[in-house]
Write a structure and sequence with these properties.
The chain has 368 residues and is of the alpha+beta class. The chain contains ten helices and 15 strands. The chain is globular. It catalyses: 2-formamido-N(1)-(5-O-phospho-beta-D-ribosyl)acetamidine + ATP = 5-amino-1-(5-phospho-beta-D-ribosyl)imidazole + ADP + phosphate + H(+).
Amino acid sequence: MTEHPENSYAAAGVDTAAGDLAVELMKQSVAASQGPQVLGGVGGFAGLFDVSALKDFERPLLATSTDGVGTKIAIAQAIDKHDTIGQDLVGMVVDDIVVIGAKPLFMTDYIACGKVFPNRIAEIVGGIADACTATGTALVGGETAEHPGLMGEHDYDVAGAAVGAVEASLLLGPEKVVDGDVVLAIESSGLHSNGFSLVRHILAGRGLSYTDRDDELGGVVGEVLLEPTRLYTSPLLAVIDAHPGAIHAMSHVTGGGIAANLARVLPVGSWAELERSTWTPPEVFRVLAGWGGHALDSLEGTWNLGIGMLAVVSAAEADAVTATLQAAGLPTWPVGRVSTSARDLAGFEQGAKGVDGGAVRLTGAYAV
């Protein structure tokens, strides 16, 4: 039976030729992220990664993480700038792996869109591939799916998953945290990829467009807000190697904010107070908070407020770890200390996301 053109896949809104062109456009950047461990290149049904190196591990553990970028994508779409969203995706996924001491091995991505615009898809994937290259992660495959009728022509969403590996004896986490450990804060590059629903709500209330220029924010609104998520993977893996055993746990400050994410990696019965006076939240947080009529401390569960990572380290090695991270271009400072002494924990954040962890609260006032 001959298919009528009006009943074809293309007539239904799916352009397979555009999808093929997008793959051709992204091939070079994807290939640049791949080392000799990747077999088969782009276009296979499944990505292949040679894990022969794991035979040298005494007890290899695989680590995996998956995430998306959230509503930050709406800003990229509004100003038609798509080359940084990929870095946001890699940062959200891969840095959830490094916090347990694992080295990322490979990643896959998924893009759902209303219509495939090949150059746009290539921009997005190019950003993913460049960030994978920067973190030593091979981009081994992905999928782009058109959803006509379910998504608007210019709408898209991105998600990804990564796999890493760590020697069991080197796994970081609450079990290694002890009384007296120092909590180090590592600076964020801005909002990263969390809390953008609140950002968008604040801007709507102020009647601002993403294409507007604002002197308080210091530029075009959308461009300022699209500052990509900082990639911590390579510097953190380097500091783990440079100071064996010094880092006991790490926390990626994402959804849930500062206290809740640190509480997840502290042992039950421990607590930490983080001193706000040790840092000044960057201007983007101060401006947005002011526009929304919020006190900064009321936003500590929504935005990172200038701290992208927290590391719990041996007190004896805290200065050395700080110096190594600073030398790698990551501003780092001591923000608190872990204690296991008995005390009233009223007002502390205790555990998060189903984890019965330690207790954390922020205290004092932010530095001006």
